Amino acid sequence: MISEKATDLAQFNKYVFAVPFTVNKMEIKEKIVSIYGVKPIKINIVKKEGKSVRHGRHLGKKKNFKKAIITLAPSDKIEVYEGV
Fold first, then answer.
1. How many other CB atoms are found less than 10 A from the CB of residue 23?
2. Could you tell me if 28 and 19 are in contact, meaning their C-beta atoms sit under 8 angstroms apart?
3. Alpha-carbon gap, residue 18 to 1, rounded angstroms
4. 28-38 burial: b if 16+ Cβ within 10 Å, else e
5. What are the backbone dihedrals phi and psi of residue 33, each rounded to the nearest 5 degrees, phi first?
6. What is the three-class DSSP state of 75?
7. Cα of 1 vs its chain's centroid, Å
8. What is the value of pTM for the model shown?
């Protein structure tokens, strides 16, 4: 996820990812190791409730989502902003 808060966390070697609602910390850790080749020190998970929205007379709701905040060792790095 690219947001202002996620960008600020990068200076503390923390990276934020949107993850499926059904995964747990162990599955996230395995995917980070397999994709980026770095071992996370700590994984925090935040469940976010979808906001209520209104389009004219019609009420609706955005989807619930989960995000994972990955903390890496000071020597490890993930190149997230390669093409930006």
1. 14
2. yes
3. 6
4. bbeebeeebeb
5. -65, -45
6. coil
7. 6
8. 0.79
Q: Can you read off the two tokens belonging to residue 29?
A: 């850790």
Dihedral (CA of 14, 16, 17, 22) sign: positive
pLDDT in tens, 58-76: 999 999 989 999 999 988 8
More confident of the two residues 1 and 19? 19
Neighbours of 19 (CB within 10 A): 19
Cα gap 38→32, rounded to integer Å? 7
Tell me the C-alpha distance between 77 and 80, whole Å. 9
Q: Using alpha carbons, select from 61, 13, 22 the residue that is nearest to residue 45.
A: 22
pLDDT: is 79 or 25 the higher one? 25
Place of tokens 């998970």: 45
Phi and psi torsions of 49, nearest 5°:
-80, 140
